[in-house]
Design a protein that fits this description.
It is a single chain. The chain is about 80% helix and about 0% strand. The chain is mostly helical. The chain folds into two domains: about 50 residues, Orthogonal Bundle (Arc Repressor Mutant, subunit A); about 130 residues, Orthogonal Bundle (Tetracycline Repressor, domain 2).
């Protein structure tokens, strides 16, 4: 992709993330075009359908969460890094549930995007789980997919809870991870 095309692509995805977060994934695509300061043709050249755009935004969200895991693993002790990442995952599940639902409605769960996102999250979770296991902080029998499932379940269970309730539930999960 040419540099200008890459910049437009990234601008559209970043703008769509903002618009989707503010107004939901059904927000008019014209809002994205106007906010990004591009022509409609530029949007449709990169993203011929809303579903393709939703897919790109979702991938970017997953890449950001994975980057956050790597950053936390470098900056914090293993248990703190794991807890902070689970908080981020819960926020993702709560704040982005409409994005996830739209993606699931648009593409097959055996698609390359779902495989990519699952693999990216699994690898990110492992970057936090492995040091925590080596330090004896969490159970040795846990797998990275277990963290993904726990974060999803926790996100679903606290979707309408306040911050204090979310922290209580996170504490329960963290205690359950211990050996």
């Amino acid at each position: 992709m040419r540099a200008d095309a890459r910049r437009n692509y990234e601008l559209i995805v970043a703008t769509a993330r903002e618009v989707f977060f503010e107004h939901g994934v059904d927000a008019p695509l014209d809002d994205i075009v106007k906010r990004a300061g591009i022509g409609a043709g530029t949007l449709y050249r990169h993203f011929p359908t809303r579903d393709v755009l939703v897919e790109a935004v979702y991938r970017q969200e997953i890449e950001d969460i994975a980057q956050r895991a790597r950053q936390l693993a470098k900056e914090l002790p293993p248990e703190e890094a794991l807890a902070e990442w689970l908080r981020a995952m819960v926020r993702f599940h709560v704040d982005r549930s409409d994005l996830t639902a739209a993606l699931k409605a648009a593409i097959d769960e055996d698609s390359e995007t779902f495989r990519y996102c699952k693999g990216t999250l699994r690898d990110a979770a492992w970057e936090l789980l492995s040091p925590a296991q080596a330090a004896g902080i969490v159970r040795a029998d846990l797998e990275s997919v277990d963290l993904m499932r726990l974060s999803h379940g926790l996100g679903a269970s606290v979707k309408h809870a306040d911050a204090a309730a979310r922290e209580r539930m996170l504490s329960v999960v963290m205690n359950g991870l211990r050996p």
